[in-house]
Amino acid sequence: MRASDRAYRKLLDEIVAGELPAGTVLGEVEQSERLGVSRTPLREAFNRLVADGMLNTEPGRGVVVSQLSLETVTELYEVREGLEEQAARLAAQRADKEVFKKLWEEFENSKSLILGGEIGANVFYELNAKFDDAIDEAIQNPYMVATLKNVRTHMARVRKLARSNPARLLEAASETQLIVEAIAIGDAALAAHATHVHLHKSHSRVSAAVREQLAKINKEVA
Amino acid sequence: MRASDRAYRKLLDEIVAGELPAGTVLGEVEQSERLGVSRTPLREAFNRLVADGMLNTEPGRGVVVSQLSLETVTELYEVREGLEEQAARLAAQRADKEVFKKLWEEFENSKSLILGGEIGANVFYELNAKFDDAIDEAIQNPYMVATLKNVRTHMARVRKLARSNPARLLEAASETQLIVEAIAIGDAALAAHATHVHLHKSHSRVSAAVREQLAKINKEVA
DNA sequence: GTTATCTTTTCTGTATACAATCTTGTTGTT
DNA sequence: AACAACAAGATTGTATACAGAAAAGATAAC
Predict the structure, then answer these.
(1) Inter-chain contact A44–B47, Cβ cutoff 8 Å?
(2) What is the pTM of this model?
(3) Element (H, E) at A116
(4) Are A103 and A134 in contact (CB under 8 A)?
(5) Confidence at A46, pLDDT banded by 50, 70, 90
(6) If 0-12 CB within 10 Å is exposed, 13-18 middle and 19+ buried, where does residue A51 land?
(7) Which chain B residues touch A44 with a CB distance below 8 Å?
(8) DSSP class of B131
(9) Nearest Cβ partner for B144 among A51, A75, A86
(10) Which of residues 152-211 of A touch B (CB under 8 A)?
(11) Average pLDDT, chain B
(12) pLDDT class for A76, splitting at 50, 70, 90?
């Protein structure tokens, strides 16, 4: 693997994981030394992260880890609404229905797992990743897949900031399962509307969680 | 302006204008010499264009100008549907209505200009750019604006390939004017639906034009 | 005490050199 | 004649050196 890729992955992971919190200023020399690559591949990584919207180049100051606020979360959800409703619609029209029927079963299983007190989050996140992959394969639109990929990276970061409790996970699982069902029966309108509902509720849940989290951080600072 | 920016702009312009047709293989040394910059900033430009989806890195062969086919046009329109309907909805909710009322007047004027046989295309494209800018300002969502920007660059390339005739421009102007009207009166549902209609018809028009164009190219080759 | 200017230091942007990998063409063998 | 192996060449990825610009700090002037 190329040095620039390693630097990109590492930095992205650290940003998503919150190890590099929003507002952190990253110097080229400093980071190239830390990551053990020279400035050239590091700059490539920086540029990609700027294009992704994970870093911002502040005029004279260098690159800064982009802020995550309630506003940016809302902005993200507004894009998701447009994009994912459309993706759900297309998936309902084009998907291999068998795939989504099986996926539906898996959601049914995982719901009892989460209820049963198993390590719920992991089960759920894995299943969600499977769902995303199934959507990507179904829509057969590389350009849309690429756009969705970026959205998901940002969402991963938001989720880390606002970890959910089992009750919320279960809600989300139910909502997603309905989308899966709609796609499995080829009902495009239902798929789109169920996605809208899911995103609306998810936005509420995430906003609440982020608000709590930000309040905690502010308290710590004070 | 930085050398990497100049290289990026120049290459993007040439790709959009069709001077670098789809399939053209670009070598690093070759292009850095042609553009008068060293390999380092050129690579930065290449990377940005790859991220934009204008270039593809073929495993051992180098970067290649990405293909434009009927399929990719359709893919682009599918993303536009999701994104621009949402943008229109948000704009209807948030826009300064005065701005869009004035824009409506301008569309009214330009329609007679196009009808009157003036250099129609330029009038229309300028007005369209104004419309895009007004949307960007209205929605107040930097993340969505960034996503839209990329879509529009791709559309510019498609439009160059499929130049429209005055009749088609006039149709498009009417459709867009309705979107403007919907936003001016704050009717989000109408704005979204008018956008859907516009994109549907635009897709038909562009597909037809691209089909003709591709047929012509194939004839020349044969 | 405040402001302005100059100097020093750091950082960004670019060029270039080097190393490793992959292509391609040629030669030799079956 | 076909295929394989090797060598020459090109090309990509990385490191590093240098130049120019910008920021911070210090000193001087008002």
Answers:
(1) yes
(2) 0.93
(3) none
(4) yes
(5) very high
(6) middle
(7) 43-44, 47
(8) H
(9) A75
(10) 154
(11) 92
(12) very high
